[in-house]
Specification:
It is a single chain. The two termini are about 35 Å apart. About 40% of the residues lie in helices and about 20% in strands. By secondary structure, it is α/β, with parallel strands linked by helices. It has eleven helices and nine strands. The protein is globular and about 55 Å long. The longest helix has 14 residues.
Amino acid sequence: MNKVLIRERFAKNLENYNENAKIQKRMAERLVELAKNTKPEKILEIGCGTGFVTKLINDRFEFKTYLALDIVEECETYVENINPNITFIPADVEEFIKNNNENFDLIISNASLQWVDDFENVIKALQTKLNPNGELVFSTFGNENFREIFHITGTTLDYFSNSRLQEMFPKADIYPEIHIMAFDTPKDVLKHLQLTGVNGLEQKSWTKKDLIKFENGYKNICTNRPTLTYNPVYIRIISPIG
């Protein structure tokens, strides 16, 4: 996983993110609803971005300590505008896990943990950082995510099936969804991917030949308007009371 490229792509499109990341915003709302029964004094948010989850938690929960983590340093301004008492940490979660010994009542992450190098072990490590009866609540994407893009380009992240996620985390509550967005043209799909930063896996610049192949690929799989499938998966793991 090229995290330097991922950071650069998201940083470049921060100003456009809130307007275009409609699915991610909906995911943030659902995610915080899943954590609504907690009374967390100490919170860790991973991949805070422009603050979709941060603002929802700030408005709904009372807390003493809130750490907001993101590899994109420019996200600090968004966090400060929500609440200057929230501590922003410009760091990669895998490095943070190695170097931080704190425990939390709530660890929450929206649409960011799919970018880690070792998904299963990161989640298991985060579970060890929960206080008794603490909650790890996060969203990722299932293996139907961006199925159109994979069909055309053969490029995808290592998304997991629901059964594989349940196998990895047998005590977790898992809630999958499917959302299908429709666009006017294949170029609009590509623009959406660029403006939300989620094309961070793609390292090369597109040529005219690549674009033609992309457009023709959509003509082969979509008879009407081109679509883009999102497959959000919400996961909640509660730590034993002790």
